């Protein structure tokens, strides 16, 4: 569990509000415990499209399509999903599409499941190789400032940014 | 005598299996007035079909890589612009690479989205190797099984009118398979720079890059 549960609840709600204030209207995800609050709030929000994906690479293409139509979207995924996105990121890098993803990390700080390490440890080098800037968050008070910075980098700066919500922030799963 | 179709294609077998229509005639007939749509296309054949049809218009976004993404680009665009009709035109190979997208799209079921699969049963760009649709896979049944309620296979001239209507009308996402001969798509030299195509598309639709 995170060190401070109250603090955690607060940033999760603030994070959804921050994305909505910045006109994010498409939330794409493969279901994940680390993003439960954002997913549930997007499902309950009639002002957005909540898009459940079968694999994360679908989300990469969805974000590009949203941009073609003048809308803003975010991809919520687990670290393992980063690997499923790699060739589809050719679309983002080649087309200079704005791209924002929030990753809940596995296979790092305190991970007990050996299957999570190969992709978890490869997230940053692999995304970097495809032109995605990675920003790590380890403390609750960093969440809102970091995602605010990412929103600017993506939707004003025209970049691809992955915000990594680490297991120091989220707490490591025991399994 | 040299065959007038691509080397390596068993055209008689393809025709016997129902791949009969000429894509250069059937695609324009099925689409009709292209200005009524925003287009997202697949990589090779369908990019050339739609670029030739529209003279590489600013209302099309064609791919030449990132295979498997066409349907989902179309979904993002359709959700962003419910006031416009979005037509994804892609090939059997491109669609087969991300069949899960059909499930994702079926759940959202936007009424302004239509998916057109120009199915020639082959990977034309890589030398006309047979695709799974030449080997027993039925994309319309996959789409229907994924939950898309409005599906149709167009395999003859007689089917074209109904297929055309489905692409333009209805209260949910439509999925049309157009079965065509494994023959060359139109030769058309389109803009293959993904960034300038993005800027062109957004400029025309939104008045901004």
Explained architecture:
The complex is a heterodimer of chains A (175) and B (209). Chain A is an alpha/beta fold and 175 residues long. Helix content of chain A is 47%, strand content 19%. Chain A has helices at residues 5-21, 36-44, 56-68, 79-84, 89-95, 117-129, 143-155, 167-170; strands at 24-29, 49-52, 72-78, 99-104, 133-137, 160-165. A 6-stranded parallel sheet of chain A has the order 2-1-3-4-6-5, with helices on both faces. In chain A, helix 7 (143-155) links the parallel strand 5 (133-137) and strand 6 (160-165). In chain A, helix 1 crosses helix 2 and helix 1 runs parallel beside helix 7. Chain A is globular, with a radius of gyration of 15 Å. The mean pLDDT of chain A is 93. Chain B is α/β, with parallel strands linked by helices and 209 residues long. Chain B has 9 helices and 8 strands. Chain B has helices spanning 11-16, 23-31, 45-54, 70-80, 92-96, 100-108, 139-146, 160-168, 194-206, and strands at residues 37-41, 60-61, 85-91, 113-119, 122-123, 129-130, 150-154, 174-179. In chain B, the strands form 2 sheets. A 6-stranded parallel sheet of chain B has the order 2-1-3-4-8-7, sandwiched between helices. In chain B, helix 3 (45-54) links the parallel strand 1 (37-41) and strand 2. Chain B is globular and about 50 Å long. Chains A and B meet through strand 2, helix 3 and helix 5 of A and helix 4, helix 6 and helix 9 of B.
What is the β-strand count of chain A? 6
The biggest sheet of chain B, with number of strands, parallel, antiparallel or mixed sense and barrel status, is:
6 strands, parallel
* Molecular shape of chain B: globular
Structural class of chain B: alpha/beta
Strand order of the largest sheet of chain A: 2-1-3-4-6-5
Order of helix and strand elements from N to C terminus of chain A: HEHEHEHHEHEHEH
């Amino acid at each position: 569990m995170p060190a401070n549960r109250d603090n955690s609840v607060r940033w999760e709600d603030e994070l959804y509000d921050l994305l909505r204030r910045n006109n994010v209207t498409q939330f794409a995800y493969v279901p994940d415990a680390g993003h439960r609050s954002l997913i549930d709030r997007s499902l309950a929000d009639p002002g957005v499209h909540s898009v459940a994906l079968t694999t994360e690479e679908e989300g990469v293409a969805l974000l590009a399509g949203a941009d073609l139509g003048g809308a803003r979207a975010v991809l919520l995924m687990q670290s393992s999903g980063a690997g499923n996105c790699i060739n589809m990121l050719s679309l983002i890098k080649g087309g200079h599409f704005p791209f924002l993803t929030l990753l809940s990390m596995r296979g790092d700080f305190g991970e007990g499941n050996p299957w999570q390490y190969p992709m978890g440890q490869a997230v940053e080098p692999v995304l970097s190789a495809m032109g995605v800037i990675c920003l790590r968050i380890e403390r609750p008070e960093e969440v809102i400032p970091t995602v605010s910075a990412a929103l600017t980098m993506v939707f004003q700066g025209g970049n691809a940014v992955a915000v990594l919500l680490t297991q120091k922030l989220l707490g490591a799963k025991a399994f | 005598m040299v065959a007038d179709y691509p080397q390596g294609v068993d055209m008689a077998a393809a025709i016997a299996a129902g791949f009969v229509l000429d894509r250069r005639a059937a695609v324009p007939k099925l689409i009709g007035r292209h200005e009524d749509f925003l287009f997202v296309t697949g990589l090779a054949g369908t990019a050339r079909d739609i670029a030739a049809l529209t003279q590489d218009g600013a209302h099309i976004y064609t791919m030449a890589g990132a295979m498997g993404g066409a349907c989902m680009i179309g979904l993002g665009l359709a959700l962003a612009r419910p006031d416009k009709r979005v037509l994804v035109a892609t090939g059997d190979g491109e669609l087969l690479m991300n069949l899960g997208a059909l499930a994702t799209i079926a759940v959202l079921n936007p009424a302004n989205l239509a998916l057109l699969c120009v199915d020639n049963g082959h990977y034309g760009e890589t030398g006309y190797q047979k695709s799974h649709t030449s080997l027993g896979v039925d994309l319309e049944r996959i789409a229907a099984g994924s939950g898309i309620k409005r599906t149709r296979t167009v395999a003859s001239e007689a089917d074209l009118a109904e297929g055309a209507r489905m692409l333009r009308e209805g209260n949910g996402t439509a999925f049309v398979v157009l079965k065509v001969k494994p023959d060359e798509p139109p030769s058309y030299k389109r803009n293959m720079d993904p960034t300038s195509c993005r800027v062109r598309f957004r400029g025309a639709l939104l008045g901004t890059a």
